[in-house]
Design brief:
Blueprint lengths: L2 H18 L24 E3 L18 E3 L2 H9 L2 H14 L8 H18 L3 E2 L2 E2 L5 H24 L1
């Protein structure tokens, strides 16, 4: 897939997430509407299992693997230390008068859940082949099915 098409596909996925999920940070609950239409808008979409490390390349297009975060939370998720995340949580709590905090454990639990899903759907051995590499059609079929299941879960949650 050429770079331009990949970027467009990713933006379309982000737009679909934006239109079909609450416009709040996954970890802090802070509203993200102020970022729409700005140069920071793309920064609110964070891959839970980092796409850049190449450990989980097949989940790049899996909607469940993308969490909405403030740009600073996204930075802390990707590059921050545990101490910086704790300090951020304390800052949020202080600024909100104890009403809000940043629950990084929620993101960690989702990360563990996604790792288990990844192992289930993309095992490193297939048949007698160790280090099996999935072809693009296999990836599209599996991730497509997972996305359908994810969107159905989202629809069910919004009906309640």
């Amino acid at each position: 897939m050429e770079l331009h098409t990949a970027k467009l596909t990713q933006i379309m996925l982000f737009r679909y997430l934006w239109n079909n999920t609450p416009k709040k940070s996954f970890v802090s609950g802070l509203w993200l509407r102020e970022y729409e239409g700005t140069e920071l808008w793309l920064s609110i979409f964070a891959h839970v299992l980092a796409k850049g490390e190449n450990k989980y390349p097949y989940f790049k297009w899996y909607a469940k693997n993308i969490a909405l975060l403030t740009p600073f939370e996204h930075h802390l998720h990707d590059n921050g230390t545990e101490e910086q995340r704790i300090n951020y949580s304390l800052d949020i709590e202080e600024k909100s008068g104890g009403k809000n905090t940043a629950d990084w454990g929620k993101l960690k639990r989702l990360e563990e859940e996604l790792k288990q899903e990844y192992k289930k759907y993309f095992p490193t051995t297939k048949g007698l082949i160790i280090g099996y590499k999935y072809d693009p059609d296999e990836v599209k079929e599996i991730v497509g099915r997972l996305n359908v299941e994810f969107w159905n879960e989202i629809k069910e949650k919004t009906r309640m």
